Amino acid sequence: xYHSPKEDFAFVQVYLAKQRKYIFHRVPYSEFKASTTCxxxxxxxxxxxxTSASIRVNDEEGTVEGDITLVPPFAPWPVxxxxxxxxxxxxxxxxxxxxxxxxxxxxxxxxxxxxxxPATAGAPANAFVVNFDGGKGYLEKDWxxxxxxxxxxxxxxxxxxxxxDTIESTIAALAAEKAPMxxxxxxxxxxxxxxxxxxxxxxxxEPPAPSGGLAHRGTPGSSATGDVLAKLGHLKACPGLGxxxxxxxxxxxxxxxxxxxxxGLVMSVAVVPIPGLPNKFSAQGFFxxxxxGGRTIALGTYTWGAHLNMRPVSDGSGQTNNLVFTAESxxxxxxxxxxxxxxxxxxxxxxxxxxxxMEPLIHESLEGTIRVRLWEAVPAATHxxxxxxxxxxxxxxxxxxxxxxxxxxxGHLPVLDGSDKVIIKRWKLLFAGVGHNxxxxxxxxxxxxxxxxxxxxxQ
Length: 459
Fold this sequence. Notes:
The protein is built from 5 helices and 23 strands. It is mainly β. The strands form 3 sheets. Strands 12, 13, 14, 15, 16, 17, 18, 19, 20, 21, 22 and 23 form a 12-stranded antiparallel β-sheet that branches. Strands 4, 5, 6, 7, 8, 9, 10 and 11 form an 8-stranded antiparallel β-sheet that branches. A hairpin with a 5-residue loop joins strand 4 and strand 5 (40-43).
């Protein structure tokens, strides 16, 4: 619903990602009804609850009709007396312009939508059905008086293991090269892993001899099998993304946890006005929530010792399609690499409320890819500070001492309290996965962060 001194009205926005089509359906304010105790909203002929969505949109831009059931179990961001979900304690601060909540990281879907699009100058009329049976849903809400000055937002709950993503991309690459191979459907999975960013890429990077991980047309040791294993062992799946996403060899891949079916991530970095101060005063904040295995790990400006590093990565053509976020707070470190489609800046823009009305300012795609790794610090050990004669070899020796202990890999930190001891900081990999069909959204990022995805103007 949009409310201003000039006018009041309600609306439904429908974004058809594959068709690059956006429908903004406006209805009179009198046709808006909402419960004050639960999620139950009527907008014209459409009805939304915490367990269903009945959509009836008939507009000159297109018609969308159908019913979708949200299938439990749901995975909400927990809300307590002291932590207000995604926003932590800041969600209890009054007078903020915008508040955000996550009602479900991941849940099932059942139902369908019938879509009819009119002919345009660039495309003929089109009618089709979108089937949601067996799909996954995500549910969030925003409320307040306005949007942040600028922000990035990313989300996905379609996770596969890094190993599966690597295998699929490798097979696709070999198929494109017309290599004579075929993966067996009964082949056992090979897991993927990560290395702590403090560890050099050379650590455990050599692939072992093949041990039956994949079955191919031909005998073991054939050229087709060798090609696949070589590509899997040395594939640079994430060029330019930095040490946070350094690929390891096949031996280490078997140690990584598999993403559970309820896995979901949402992360946002924003510049927001400071309440009570002139508009030119603002602050930058972030939150990130990773839900998996029935628990939610939260990192944000509101968590102890939190800090965030964000950097763009060019695709080599001068266009920025990748962003790498590394957040650390308390005992957790979360690394997220988001890859946006090259045409994200040219896709239809979603409308947001401004002082002028509802303006098309938000860039969004639902066809992104994100890579996620979550690490947990494990109890550290102290060692004597290396002498000048051994300081070149001692760190490597420390790292070697930690190898073979699962994925608790460490590096050395500065001297503590002026003594002759250093601390070995070791990390255990809790989650590693690649999220497809990822939502990537941004607004006014060039002026707020000096970063813009894709090409085109940034408002």
